[in-house]
Design a protein that fits this description.
The chain is an alpha+beta fold. The chain contains 3 helices and 6 strands; from the N terminus they run βαββββαβα. A 4-stranded antiparallel sheet has the order 2-5-1-6, with helices on one face. A two-stranded antiparallel sheet has the order 3-4. Strand 3 and strand 4 form a beta hairpin. The model has no long low-confidence stretch (mean pLDDT about 85).
Length: about 140
């Protein structure tokens, strides 16, 4: 089972903080945790995201597209980083996430969401169609 693990943003992740000794220690702990994920064969990919001030939103209404420059309000709903994990089931993903260090001062949240698998999309396309990559894609709808 593939899951995406979102590190949710908070007010601290949206600013350029001067690293404190505690933050440097937390990032070292996160590096160690990531090495454990890789060694266990769980980690597929991951990255941190720059603050929303450097981002854009595209609002789609019918055929109209509106571009909104960051920063965006409601940081508790924003993603600060992500990982893609290959796990046995959601319980294993939760067990790994509970071991994750907190790299930001104060409260932080992690969200785990499973990817759609071919069986989930059987009403939309055949497994062969889903597995057939289009140019520049892994397969339709991102299913491996």
């Amino acid at each position: 089972m593939r899951v995406m693990v979102f590190a949710m943003a908070n007010e601290n992740s949206q600013t350029d903080l001067t690293p404190t000794p505690e933050m440097l220690e937390a990032f070292a702990a996160m590096d160690k945790f990531t090495e454990e994920l890789v060694a266990a064969g769980v980690m597929v990919a991951g990255a941190g995201l720059k603050p929303t001030a450097e981002g854009k939103r595209i609002v789609c209404e019918g055929s109209s597209r509106t571009v909104i420059d960051g920063p965006f309000a409601e940081t508790h709903e924003m993603v600060a980083g992500f990982s893609i994990w290959e796990v046995k089931d959601m319980d294993e993903a939760v067990a790994w996430a509970k071991r994750s260090p907190n790299c930001m001062p104060g409260r932080s949240e992690i969200q785990i969401r499973p990817f759609y698998e071919a069986a989930d999309l059987a009403d939309f396309a055949t497994p062969e169609e889903l597995a057939t990559p289009r140019e520049g894609e892994r397969g339709r709808l991102g299913v491996a």
